[in-house]
Amino acid sequence: xxxxxxxxxxxxxxxxxxxxxxxxxxxxxxxxxxxxxxxxxxxxxxxxxxxxxxxxxxxxxxxxxxxxxxxxxxxxxxxxxxxxxxxxxxxxxxxxxxxxxxxxxxxxxxxxxxxxxxxxxxxxxxxxxxxxxxxxxxxxxxxxxxxxxxxxxxxxxxxxxxxxxxxxxxxxxxxxxxxxxxxxxxxxxxxxxxxxxxxxxxxxxxxxxxxxxxxxxxxxxxxxxxxxxxxxxxxxxxxxxxxxxxxxxxxxxxxxxxxxxxxxxxxxxxxxxxxxxxxxxxxxxxxxxxxxxxxxxxxxxxxxxxxxxxxxxxxx
Length: 316
Fold this sequence. Notes:
With 316 residues, the chain is an alpha/beta fold. The protein has helices at residues 2-7, 22-25, 42-47, 66-72, 85-101, 104-112, 136-147, 173-179, 199-202, 222-230, 270-288; strands at 30-33, 53-56, 75-78, 128-132, 151-155, 168-170, 182-185, 210-213, 236-239, 259-261.
């Protein structure tokens, strides 16, 4: 934060923006957005009349109306250079896998209630791990799976697989779902991936398999997943992401058996936040010197709209 404070006066907003905050948005020339919880739409850019740069942590901006930002002359810088999420998201993925395969949460609760429960877990060595998406995050999960002695299957909707390790076997999605003991999702959200894990595809999974999603909630049909867990058609699910966040109090997932839920914490470790802020500070410094690389922005053409007063994109 020290570097950011050298570059600009910093105000930290700890709660989600509401209509009451609109009157204050006009005070800010720069916004650092931690992840994607707040929608940046036309009304936001209308209210933020002095805004010229959004520093978006992470490599995606699903919550930003790109056309509205560009019309307003607001450049969106993306934190694609951040590397730590490639480490910590696979770590959380395996936290889910081990906790579910060994029923750690259930046994701990039983012990807290005074019991000494009996349980038969399942080993990772020799089990099959199926990855829906084997890119930056998926490769990290594959490495951990191979270290545990798991067989690794992978599926992507097209792509270049030259970076695959020798232990990764590419198969059709139907084969992956039918053979895997653990299915873990690591896909980008897109029209093609939305509701990819439908009721029909969930039904292809083995009844003793578990589903892990640390990617994007909308990839899974949550109602169908809750029903599959209630009916015993799946052994468990570990979910860090949800279609709508925060998760509704009455969501059927909250009471589904063998559902291990966390509030989108995949990136929430000190090392990741530190790197987010460091990259954002470097980008803001580059902007102030009109040296921000267009390659690091979602819409470099926005800088041509005439709003920028305190900096700009390199070459403009």
